[in-house]
Specification:
Length: about 450
């Protein structure tokens, strides 16, 4: 049984003190019945409805005689405007009645789902995840599981003055997959993949501060209700587009052109509305999660350093992988990254690093208010990443050459020619491929282990 492998972690009790994060601010929210299935399936329902209504109207209009069309236009134009006005008013009222102010960030947001509704949605998602990773859930008596639980408990204990903390049944699920990911469901189920544990570890020892930053970010999503807000916002957008899309399908004479137009408008909405909002709430989770980690007395300096190292590893990995491609064309990396920023659900690593660095003074002040132990002034994680950057700049050409030679050697070896893989006289060859491990992670780990020495 999967449930025998997991158990709830620390159940904190309410703290009578107020949160130092911000003053609690609320605004009245009118309760209006809003079936959760309408929110979940808003996009496909809106697309199908607009297509069916618009095509039906077009075909029906095409069968009417010209004289009759003129008569109907005069008769129905007024009522169409009235109907459109009423529908617009209903949408506006529905939006205004579900806007509330976040008590921790002060941002006003539209949320059409209640806590009970979003929990039902999350429970269904949990069942699917448990089924998907049934064979990979780590037992709760495993050492790695206990280490992750220790980090999560520190965040919960340090932030138990927040109502959403003690209002959830927090549970850790460690998944034995080489995936660098972690996420938290609105119900409080914290999924951490083994690949994320590896990323937050040095020489097989977990860096609790780094994992605390990651879990703080993911738990911030659950505390701030980002899932409910994102689903509500998506359903609102699709509801607003329903009538214009139906009109488009009615007036465009060709189904093919109408389909392409519909697809194009959907993509424009995604790029101009949905994706910027997704990046906004990710930045909000970064900021609030940093405060959660600070109150739990983690070393918050690991936050900007993490995104510095992530950017560096992505650059290293892209460079080393690109040089092994057959007949690889030289691409404009800067242009590609710029395009990627607009199409990404998350802010760029550079952006996240800068934003977290700007929040560092406030985070350190929170640690001081919470009487956390003083940080080691001789240790600076950002400086370590800077050293790795200098080493990469100095050794990039040699690594590229070694990687190309290693690939050629493996190719010859696969044809039966016994050739050794060049290792630049190092104790460990970073080109020996490990399943699920990128070039950059291997090089980065070797650097941290001291097998490859950086600049003195």
């Amino acid at each position: 049984m999967i449930l025998s492998k997991i158990s709830p972690i620390l159940k904190v009790t309410p703290c009578p003190t107020t949160s130092p994060l911000s003053k609690i601010r609320t605004s009245p929210v009118h309760s209006v019945p809003f079936p959760p299935f309408l929110v979940i399936f808003a996009k496909p329902l809106a697309m199908v409805s607009a297509t069916v209504i618009g095509r039906g109207a077009r075909f029906a209009w095409g069968r009417i005689a010209a004289a009759k069309k003129t008569e109907l236009k005069k008769k129905w134009t007024k009522w169409l405007w009235i109907t459109g006005g009423v529908m617009g008013g209903c949408v506006g009222w529905g939006y205004a009645s579900h806007v509330k102010e976040c008590p921790y960030t002060g941002r006003r947001k539209f949320v059409a789902l209640s806590t009970e509704q979003i929990n039902r949605i999350a429970e269904e998602a949990l069942e699917g995840l448990l089924e998907e990773y049934e064979e990979d859930i780590v037992e709760n008596n495993n050492l790695l599981y206990q280490q992750v639980t220790k980090v999560a408990n520190r965040i919960l204990e340090g932030n138990k003055d927040i109502p959403e903390i003690f209002g959830k049944n927090w549970t850790i699920l460690l998944v034995n997959k080489d995936i660098e990911n972690a996420f938290v469901l609105p119900t409080g189920h914290i999924f951490v993949f083994k690949g994320m544990w590896d990323l937050c570890s040095n020489d097989g020892k977990l860096n609790e501060d780094k994992l605390g930053i990651i879990l703080g970010h993911e738990m911030a999503h659950a505390i701030l209700g980002h899932t409910a807000e994102k689903l509500s916002r998506s359903s609102l957008i699709e509801s607003c587009l329903l009538v214009p899309m139906a009109v488009m399908w009615a007036f465009v004479p060709s189904d093919g052109i109408a389909f392409i137009t519909h697809w194009f408008i959907s993509k424009v909405v995604d790029i101009c509305i949905e994706l910027p909002f997704s990046r906004e709430i990710e930045s909000e989770a970064d900021s609030f999660g940093l405060k959660l980690a600070a109150k739990a007395c983690f070393d918050v300096r690991e936050a900007p350093a993490f995104w510095m190292s992530t950017k560096l590893m992505a650059e290293m990995n892209a460079t080393l992988e690109e040089c092994t491609k057959d007949n690889a064309d030289i691409v404009d990396a800067d242009s590609y990254r710029t395009l990627e920023l607009y199409l990404s659900t998350h802010p760029a690593d550079d952006t996240r690093h800068k934003q977290l660095q700007e929040s560092m003074k406030e985070a350190l002040a929170i640690r001081q208010e919470c009487r956390c132990p003083h940080l080691d002034s001789d240790y600076d994680p950002c400086k370590l990443v800077d050293q790795m950057r200098e080493w990469w700049d100095d050794n990039k050409d040699a690594l590229i050459k070694d990687t190309i030679e290693a690939k050629q050697s493996r190719r010859l070896r696969n044809t039966g020619v016994p050739l050794a893989i060049p290792d630049l006289n190092r104790e460990k060859n970073y080109n020996e491929e490990k399943p699920g491990t990128s070039y950059a992670v291997q090089v980065f780990n070797i650097f941290k282990a001291g097998l490859i020495q950086g600049k003195d």
